[in-house]
């Protein structure tokens, strides 16, 4: 319900226009070419073989296209520059909004595996994500919220394997979740995926059917990505990494604004960039401190995690590796967007690392868990005031942005009330 109230009602960024252009082209013209789209003027595009394409990996847009197809069949169409676009609102609600809601459900299931009582785990499963960057990115169209759901789902399968044992079904879900995640977010290929492979290879109860299910489910989305991507770029490398395809008349991009390759910086410069991304300018941890507390809990809670040691290593090492690579391969903090958006999908991992505190039955643990809940709720208020109503901006910490009219916070309500006869 909360996500439905805050979901944006019109696209405002090149990132959104790029994805919407692909979805619109697939439904209305059965092509990945952006040339005939009403969003073709987006900055986030490449030019190859005489046509423009989105620079984003094509699999997610392909998966999301049927949702717009249903809206289109009902008579709704995307309307670029419209003050209120019902097609866009419903599309976001049933993609990223639904992904946020399902992430809450998955976290509740994770907390259940740790034997956290029902009402308590439902409270934390809802409040903790609201105190992260998943909240503002749940209100607009993007790949980060979808990737967060897939990561949460994969981590749940890993914990379920530890608690309930391996099975073909769980291995299939684990492989499929990691495969789609890797096809739309890329970074997990060099962080979580290698660690999961080592984890599975070292398990004593591994069986051939389980390994086949895991491998097949992981490869299937990547094969689908390859089949879609090769006609666009000529190979399996996503368009965003083909810097030469951004070289066309009028392109706003150059080496200083493109991300994806390793930036060879002196160590002091890298540390300064990381500090700005995590704590000062973008405030990734400062404005969502429950994630940093989760990381610290993952390190300090080493003893609690001994029964899930393999998953614990994947959580800590995979998250740190992904965070490090995202810092090494960017130089503009992810562009004009709140937070350090390339690390947004890691939020479920940070929250799962809070398990030693959330599952504690000691008095200190309960007090700490309650404090974390209050902190997350406070972060949610700050995010809804400063980030949710306008996620595609360079929000700078310390915060100094003026507040907007109430309609900017709950736009769908504002639109309905404004248009009541």
Give descriptors for this structure:
single chain, mainly alpha, globular, 421 residues, 58% helix
Structural notes for this entry:
The mean pLDDT is 93. The chain is globular and about 60 Å long. With 421 residues, the chain is mostly helical. The chain contains 17 helices and two strands. The chain has one domain.
Number of domains: 1
Question: What's the β-strand tally?
Answer: 2
Q: Tell me what portion of residues adopts beta-strand conformation.
A: under 5%
Structural class: mainly alpha
Mean pLDDT: 93
Total number of helices: 17
Helix proportion range: 55-70%
The protein's oligomeric status is single chain
Instruction: Please outline the major beta sheet.
Output: 2 strands, antiparallel
Form type: globular
Question: Between the first and last Cα atoms, what is the distance in angstroms?
Answer: 25 Å
- Series of H and E elements: HHEEHHHHHHHHHHHHHHH
Q: What radius of gyration results from the CA coordinates?
A: 21 Å
């Amino acid at each position: 319900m909360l996500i439905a109230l805050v979901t944006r009602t019109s696209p405002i960024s090149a990132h959104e226009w790029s994805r919407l252009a692909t979805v619109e082209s697939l439904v209305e013209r059965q092509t990945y070419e952006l040339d005939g789209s009403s969003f073709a003027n987006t900055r986030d595009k490449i030019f190859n073989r005489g046509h423009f394409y989105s620079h984003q990996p094509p699999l997610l847009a392909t998966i999301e296209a049927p949702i717009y197809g249903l809206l289109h069949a009902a008579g709704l169409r995307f309307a670029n520059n419209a003050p209120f676009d019902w097609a866009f609102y419903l599309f976001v609600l049933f993609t990223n909004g639904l992904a946020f809601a399902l992430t809450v459900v998955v976290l509740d299931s994770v907390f259940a595996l740790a034997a956290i009582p029902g009402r308590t785990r439902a409270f934390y499963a809802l409040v903790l994500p609201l105190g992260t960057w998943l909240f503002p990115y749940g209100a607009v169209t993007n790949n980060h919220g979808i990737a967060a759901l897939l990561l949460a789902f994969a981590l749940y399968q890993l914990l379920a394997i530890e608690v309930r044992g391996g099975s073909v079904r769980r291995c299939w879900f684990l492989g499929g979740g990691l495969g789609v995640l890797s096809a739309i977010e890329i970074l997990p290929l060099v962080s979580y995926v290698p660690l999961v492979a080592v984890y599975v290879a070292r398990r004593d109860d591994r069986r051939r059917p389980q390994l086949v299910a895991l491998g097949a489910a992981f490869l299937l989305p990547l094969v689908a990505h390859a089949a879609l991507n090769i006609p666009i770029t000529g190979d399996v490398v996503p368009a965003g990494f083909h810097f030469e395809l951004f070289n066309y008349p009028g392109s706003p991009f150059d080496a200083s604004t493109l991300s994806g390759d390793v930036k060879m910086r002196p160590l002091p410069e890298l540390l300064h960039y990381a500090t700005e991304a995590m704590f000062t300018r973008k405030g990734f941890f400062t404005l969502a401190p429950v994630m940093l507390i989760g990381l610290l809990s993952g390190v300090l809670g080493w003893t609690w995690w001994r029964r899930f040691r393999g998953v614990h290593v994947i959580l800590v090492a995979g998250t740190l590796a992904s965070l490090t690579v995202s810092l090494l391969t960017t130089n503009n903090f992810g562009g004009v967007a709140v937070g350090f958006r390339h690390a947004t999908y890691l939020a479920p991992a940070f929250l799962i690392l809070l398990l030693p505190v959330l599952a504690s039955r000691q008095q200190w643990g309960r007090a700490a868990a309650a404090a974390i809940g209050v902190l997350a709720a406070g972060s949610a208020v700050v995010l809804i005031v400063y980030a949710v109503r306008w996620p595609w901006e360079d929000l700078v910490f310390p915060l100094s942005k003026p507040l907007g009219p109430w309609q900017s916070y709950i736009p769908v309500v504002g639109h309905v009330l404004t248009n009541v006869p």
